[in-house]
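Input protein
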Amino acid sequence: MTGLIQGKTFVVTGGASGIGASAARLAVQEGASVVLADIQDEAGKALADDLGDAARYVRCDVRSEQDVAGLVDEAVSAFGKVDVMFNNAGIVGAMGPIDEIPLDEYDFTVAVLMRSVFLGMKHAARVMKPRHSGVILSTTSCVGLRGGLGPHVYAGCKAAIVGFTRNVAAELGPWGIRVNAIAPGKHATPMFADAALGDPKATDRTDVFERISPLKGRYGTAEDIAEAAVWLSSDRAGFVSGITMSVDGGLISGTPEGAEPGQGLYAGHRPLLREAGGRGLPV
């Protein structure tokens, strides 16, 4: 423990499992008081009990303004303030061809992925503005930064979070409030394991995650996102606002999944290409 966010109050939605649970654990290790919110009551309560007096569990349906407002108020009541609001709750949501997605599935997905971020930002700002300080974080995705990596509605919502982050940062900067987003890649989390392997418990399939990783010898974990969230919450990131931090092993840069060194465009030196089919430097 280094006390990176010592004395801060850290609120995280989707906090009962995956990225949210890892962020809650690390935040407590780094000195914060944590309010973790979810609709997975059993898992959420168990994690809060495990983390001790520094943690509280609050049931929160992130689609509901009443629930999100209540979550923020509960954090203030328990710990006196909200220093960090991490809008992390999410689902994969509606899937399939664009001409076959039912409207009700679209609406539900947007509510969980996008309305939740709006509500989290709104009610965090409500209690942060009077204090002229705070950090708002949201989980977006590499799917929102590069086409063809995920379902349509998920991709649209995650791209919207990137724009929302920039715009809200522009408003809240004069209040001393920083607003950033984190874009995971194909990490070994229950949600991605379920989407890719049909089993949310298959996060231990290291063979699969290593094979699809763009970074040789390493694959992404929930802890990687937690580290980014805690750093962005800390004073070490005190001049960082309005960004989306990609924590994806280079996936959105175009690094091929599972590629061997020196493959493709970088497979050895070739003569320079010039105009009209010319090769090599001009004489």
